[in-house]
Amino acid sequence: MSTKAADQLVSVLMNWNVKHVYGLPGDSIDTTVDALRRNQDKIKFVQVRHEEVAALAAASSAKLTGGLGVCLSIGGPGAIHMLNGLYDAKMDHVPVLALLGQVTTGDINEGYFQEVNTPKLFDDVAVFNKTISASDNLGKIVDSAIRAAMTKKGVAVLTIPDDLPDHKVSGSYQDSATAFGLNAPKVDDAQIDQIATMLAQSQKPLALIGKGAEHAGKELQRLVETNHIPFILTMPAKGTIADDHANSLGNVGKLGTKPAYEAMKSTDLLLMVGTNYPYTPYLPAEGQAKCIQIDTCPENLGSRYALDVAIDGDAAAVISQLNEKGAVRTDDRFLTACQKDMDSWNRWMSEKRGLNTSPASPEAVFAAVDETAPKDAVYSIDVGTSTSWGARFLHVQPTQKYSISAWLGTMGCGLPSAIAGAEAFPERKNISISGDGAFAMVMQDFVTAVKYKLPIIQVVINNQKLAFIEYEQQSAGQLNYEIDLEDMDYAKFAEAAGGVGYTARSNAEFKDALAKAYGESDRPVLINVYVKDNAPLPGKIVGEEAKGYTKYGTQYLENYWKIPSMPPLKDIMRQFF
């Protein structure tokens, strides 16, 4: 019995439980697309309007589901467009398979139309990067590519000359999907005993929990509750334990809370679980604290802070072993002090949540979403000030999902993620929040949500500027330049695309529009909300930032003969002291 190689390729995808492929058809990938057409009842091909969106959606699908994300494009220009989304997958360590078209085998190396050396182009982004040279082993190489992506948590790229998938191949390939499994190394009991002893002896223990521990939320919650440990979640790990848990100090860093910063600078024992947190100035001072790190990537161990215990192991398994020892410490003084600090922070944030202004206040807009979102909502938060407000005003729960572009920080990630979320979880409400600068980068694919009747809610935070860059320039002591954006009626755009568009110019109008948006079941909704240019100040203004703001103010006065508009003095003082 013979079949086309393309059907063998699709069969391997199905066996690996791939439900969606994001991309655009075209001449050099059409034999693969034709196989997807023949199997459309098993795998849904989601046609996007830009290949970058395909790759970002595939990356987000992997982040949200834990499975393999898949995207495809023609060779040449289409493949080049995909690079940004694939780098997002690489840097956030999620498995993605990219299928790239190529000119036919007889035209390779002839300088043919749209021929690009994709293996060389994608060399840095990929953990597996092959060009298919024969049809007989196409299924086997696809299987190998997927295994590499899943094992190494990265991007696998296959360049496929378009004639090969159309060839007939004999027999069927038995892929490794059913047999595949990843088992973390067993942890030595002596290391568990060592961690327990260190916790028992510490006076100010602190847990820093990352995305790699997302599946271990219940075990970690038991650990911190039983042993009176305050914890900090990295941004992509929001919701691993409820953001409003009594032991939570929020996030740490420029977008974090002041209590988290102060706890980091006070702790004598830092427990890092599933994180390779890169912002070392926000970690304890060198030599200040003992440190334990648990990670499934051995190369991460000790890369940010000197370790006393390094464990190459699965977070859930390790913490479960530790929990078997019960309470190893009863001292709650540090936790109580952190909670008092957090109470003061929350009272301040409560003031911000209750702002009632026109234009709307971004803090109140995010608070309105936080207070009304379903318990199983899927959040897709874009890069910019949206990231800041999401960090502080969305209290994500373990029953919800939260997706961002964490390490690459690419603007325009919100809408593609919401599309992927709506395809993966059609029964859940998918909410994307983007600034006007970020949304404009991918806005054409709002019509993709229209085409597939995806009832996503897209909020556009409209302040007619690149606000995060505004504050970056100021904190660096630079005068603002080319940050203003021409306004656009995004609500009318949404309606022109076939969706629903609302414009809100106050907090009350936004709440009304949001309530209506929740009622839509087969159309995407866009809420264009005009907001005040409120500054998302760092949780703690550190020395270099203070110098930068002072330099900015001096330059502004010298150039414009007036004092620049700044955040309220009480806000600035709170960040300092």
From TrEMBL:
GO terms for molecular function: magnesium ion binding; pyruvate oxidase activity; thiamine pyrophosphate binding. Residues 4-117 form the Thiamine pyrophosphate enzyme N-terminal TPP-binding domain. Residues 382-529 form the Thiamine pyrophosphate enzyme TPP-binding domain. The keyword Membrane does not apply. It is an enzyme of class 1 (oxidoreductase). InterPro entries: DHS-like_NAD/FAD-binding_dom, POXB-like, THDP-binding, Thiamin_PyroP_enz_cen_dom, Thiamin_PyroP_enz_TPP-bd_dom, TPP-bd_CS, TPP_enzyme_TPP-bd, TPP_POXB-like. Keywords: Oxidoreductase, Pyruvate, Thiamine pyrophosphate. Residues 192-322 form the Thiamine pyrophosphate enzyme central domain. Pfam families: TPP_enzyme_C, TPP_enzyme_M, TPP_enzyme_N. The keyword Glycoprotein does not apply. SUPFAM superfamilies: DHS-like NAD/FAD-binding domain (SSF52467), Thiamin diphosphate-binding fold (THDP-binding) (SSF52518). Its EC number is 1.2.3.3. NCBIfam families: PRK08611.1 (NF006377). Belongs to the TPP enzyme family. This is Pyruvate oxidase.
